[in-house]
Amino acid sequence: MRRALLRTALVLLAGIAATAAGAANGRYVHPADRAEERHFPMYGNLPVCDDPAVLGELTRWFNSREATYWGPLQALSYDRISQIGFRSWGADFIPRRFCSGRMLLNDGSLRRVDYSVRENLGLFGLTWNVNWCVSGLDRHRSYAPDCKMARP
Questions:
Q1: Fewer CB within 10 Å: N-end or C-end of the chain?
Q2: β strands within the chain, DSSP E
Q3: Selected residue with higher pLDDT from 127 and 109
C-alpha cells in the first residue's frame, strides 16, 4: 500500500516537473506530444498484398476467430488479390496498404476479403500487422456496410 502511494506521488511529481520544464521555455508541451517524439519513424516499407507472410497472417487470424467463436469455417486459399490503395489517407497517417481479393472457404464458397497491411501496429509496434474483413462474415458489423470501412 505504501509503495503504491509512493509510486503515485513520484509519478505526479515527475509530471509536474515536466510541465514546469515545458513552461520554462514559454510553451506548454502536452505529455502526449512528448511521447510522440519517441515513436519509431514510419517509412511505408510494407509487404505486398499477395506476400505469403501477409496471407498467412490473414489465414491464421481468420481461422482462429472462426474456430473460437463462430464455427467450422476455415480459409483455404486466395485468388484475385490486388492492391486498392497505398497511403490513401495521406502521408501524415500510419502507412497502410489496402488490398482486396477472394477467399475460398472450406464450405466451398468464395467470399471477398478486404484487408490492410499496417506499419508499426504489430508486436510491440516493431512490425506490420493485418486488419481484415470478410464479406458476409462481419457478424458484429464492425466494418459495415459489407466491409466498406475496411477499404480506403
A1: N
A2: 75-86, 96-105, 110-118, 129-134
A3: 109
